């Protein structure tokens, strides 16, 4: 399965749609997750048709910012699990059995709300026992060496993100130990 994630920062321009079509032509993605799409359901449906997908989940933009869209094909047997302004969480099914889980995630851009993003990740992690893939823009980095130019990121911000990921890692290990 191929999944394409793109922080497109608006799909209103014909150039953005052309670029997405080109990416889809090269990757042949089975699922496309767009962040900051700035789309409503009507416009997202137009893009869906252009890309030849038959299904989608949309978190509408406020018109100026945000917006998430996940395009997929019905043959993939996808079920919407959870949704918010910052993520779309789906389950991939085989018959009536969950095979794995995917979350398209967009971290809150405001530093004052960043911890809410980590709360979202923690809550999503606790609500599933299946293999899980998270893709998106967390609006955070793990290490200062990942950033070039601009203002420095406070160490506390990066530490909170690292702590969140480490917590989930250790919880996953303990869950795996209990299963065996």
From TrEMBL:
Transmembrane segments: none annotated. One of its GO terms (molecular function) is catalytic activity. Signal peptide: none annotated. SUPFAM superfamilies: DNase I-like. Residues 6-152 form the Endonuclease/exonuclease/phosphatase domain. InterPro entries: Endo/exonu/phosph_ase_sf, Endo/exonuclease/phosphatase. This is Endonuclease/exonuclease/phosphatase domain-containing protein.
